[in-house]
Amino acid sequence: MKIVTAVAPVNIAVIKYWGKRDETLILPINDSISCTLATDFMCAKTTIMASPTFTDNKFWLNNEEVDFNNKRLNNCLTEVKKRASPKCADLLNWKIHICSENNFPTAAGLASSAAGYACLVSTLAALYEVEGDISSIARRGSGSACRSIHGGFVWWQKGVQPGGEDSVAVQIAPASHWPEMRMIILVVSDDQKKYSSTSGMKTSVETSELLKYRSEMVVPKRVKEMVEAIKTRNFENFARITMQDSNQFHAVCLDTYPPCFYMNDVSRSVVELVHSYNKYKGATKVAYTCDAGPNVCLYLLEESIDEVVTLINDVFPSSVGPSEYFRGLPVNIKN
Ligand code: 2P0
């Protein structure tokens, strides 16, 4: 028998992925950019055991057995097996038991599927000794998962090939390139989100004219500016583009018919607080970004951490959300 374990962290996009041009291959309509968190906080951990004595494939997620007959899981497994090392020929015929867990709320808009599938594919790749880039395999599990394969600042290039061979994630720079960069995750609610990202973005593609404009006219320019801001460590530009892109993503959600509401009053008051703080400082010191849920991620530099954490804790009493997170544990970026 053979046992392998891997961990993969969450990533938080600063240029959002929203919309597919191919639902089966999970090919996006635009490029996206994110930062991957350090692994010790908000990560998925997966252990896989393969044995010639197992009679069935089995999968446990957060200590509950779930159906192995899941399309995305099986797509990932098939793709990994295609690239298995010749040394693993026997192993390919053995059944596997997968055990995966997240150390943060699942499906609360905290990129749990990104960490989950990145971790699943990394563990499968270790099991079958796959070499080379595995981001295009993780993409088949969940689009955003391809970005969690790398640490630091990561760019998912949408690619042009119909089969998706060039729809891969690449590292723009490791975390050490900008060691002062930090995130604060504000868990406004750990409830499961109302509409899944998968169905929300499908409806957006079908109904939102703003999304078409965004993917064709806005994102390509923004991606270039963001890569430049990261390469030159220009926080002012990094923060402005991050906030503008979050706002446009939520505008697309509102332009979707019927609309998807992800942010709530608490998220919006964090947004207002960030703008007031930046105005008071006379410079852009903090950026907010919200995904498909009400939680807010702040990007800021180490020099601002103490003041911003104090401010958040003063303005939002711990009763607003699970205090351990809401009090704003600064998170490092993974190398
Ligand atoms: C992102 N999100 O770039 C954006 C921002 C949510 C809002 O990637 O259908 O869970 O599995 O490919 O990866 C959520 O999308 O969707 C997402 P699927 P996924 O982080």
Automatic annotation (TrEMBL):
<keyword id="KW-0444">Lipid biosynthesis</keyword>
<keyword id="KW-0152">Cholesterol biosynthesis</keyword>
<dbReference type="GO" id="GO:0004163">
    <property type="term" value="F:diphosphomevalonate decarboxylase activity"/>
</dbReference>
<keyword id="KW-0756">Sterol biosynthesis</keyword>
<keyword id="KW-0153">Cholesterol metabolism</keyword>
<dbReference type="InterPro" id="IPR053859">
    <property type="entry name" value="MVD-like_N"/>
</dbReference>
<dbReference type="Pfam" id="PF22700">
    <property type="entry name" value="MVD-like_N"/>
</dbReference>
<dbReference type="InterPro" id="IPR020568">
    <property type="entry name" value="Ribosomal_Su5_D2-typ_SF"/>
</dbReference>
<comment type="pathway">
    <text>Steroid biosynthesis; cholesterol biosynthesis.</text>
</comment>
<comment type="similarity">
    <text>Belongs to the diphosphomevalonate decarboxylase family.</text>
</comment>
<dbReference type="InterPro" id="IPR029765">
    <property type="entry name" value="Mev_diP_decarb"/>
</dbReference>
<dbReference type="InterPro" id="IPR036554">
    <property type="entry name" value="GHMP_kinase_C_sf"/>
</dbReference>
<dbReference type="InterPro" id="IPR041431">
    <property type="entry name" value="Mvd1_C"/>
</dbReference>
<dbReference type="GO" id="GO:0005524">
    <property type="term" value="F:ATP binding"/>
</dbReference>
<keyword id="KW-0443">Lipid metabolism</keyword>
<keyword id="KW-0456">Lyase</keyword>
<keyword id="KW-0752">Steroid biosynthesis</keyword>
<keyword id="KW-1207">Sterol metabolism</keyword>
<feature type="domain" description="Diphosphomevalonate decarboxylase-like N-terminal">
    <location>
        <begin position="8"/>
        <end position="169"/>
    </location>
</feature>
<protein>
    <recommendedName>
        <fullName>Diphosphomevalonate decarboxylase</fullName>
        <ecNumber>4.1.1.33</ecNumber>
    </recommendedName>
</protein>
<dbReference type="GO" id="GO:0019287">
    <property type="term" value="P:isopentenyl diphosphate biosynthetic process, mevalonate pathway"/>
</dbReference>
<keyword id="KW-0067">ATP-binding</keyword>
<dbReference type="GO" id="GO:0005829">
    <property type="term" value="C:cytosol"/>
</dbReference>
<dbReference type="GO" id="GO:0006695">
    <property type="term" value="P:cholesterol biosynthetic process"/>
</dbReference>
<keyword id="KW-0547">Nucleotide-binding</keyword>
<dbReference type="InterPro" id="IPR005935">
    <property type="entry name" value="Mev_decarb"/>
</dbReference>
<dbReference type="InterPro" id="IPR014721">
    <property type="entry name" value="Ribsml_uS5_D2-typ_fold_subgr"/>
</dbReference>
<dbReference type="Pfam" id="PF18376">
    <property type="entry name" value="MDD_C"/>
</dbReference>
<feature type="domain" description="Mvd1 C-terminal">
    <location>
        <begin position="183"/>
        <end position="335"/>
    </location>
</feature>
<keyword id="KW-0753">Steroid metabolism</keyword>
<comment type="function">
    <text>Catalyzes the ATP dependent decarboxylation of (R)-5-diphosphomevalonate to form isopentenyl diphosphate (IPP). Functions in the mevalonate (MVA) pathway leading to isopentenyl diphosphate (IPP), a key precursor for the biosynthesis of isoprenoids and sterol synthesis.</text>
</comment>
